[in-house]
Amino acid sequence: xxxxxxxxxxxxxxxxxxxxxxxxxxxxxxxxxxxxxxxxxxxxxxxxxxxxxxxxxxxxxxxxxxxxxxxxxxxxxxxxxxxxxxxxxxxxxxxxxxxxxxxxxxxxxxxxxxxxxxxxxxxxxxxxxxxxxxxxxxxxxxxxxxxxxxxxxxxxxxxxxxxxxxxxxxxxxxxxxxxxxx
Length: 182
Hints:
single chain; alpha+beta; CRO Repressor; 2 domains; four-stranded antiparallel β-sheet; 4 strands
């Protein structure tokens, strides 16, 4: 019969020791790898974060996985994440594959239907993002962008000169550079 509530004191001690050592190993590797490893950046970073948690749980609870195997798994995940982010900073095509590109969904009073459909975002979600930014009227908004991490950026009307925060943001059938030159 398989015990459900209690197996042995050894099993509890093993879980506690492996939990502490696994956690300490993970923290050490994360400190070595830098802040980016756990930042809220994009879907790729989220996957790595979830995978790290899964490895920690497996190390703590599975009798078939040793601490050394768990630390190696942590190191592989952190190392791969470091290599991919290193490459994405240096090569645009890697960045596009890993993080995608921000999507312009609303621009100068107009919803962009093709972009909304492609991003699977509703007009109600755009209005909610505008409200959350503290704006009352859509006329106060230059643009709403769906960022690569899934958050919305609401850009206020542009009254200043200089480089626009919308440079590099693309929308189907709309060239920002052309519209901003008006």
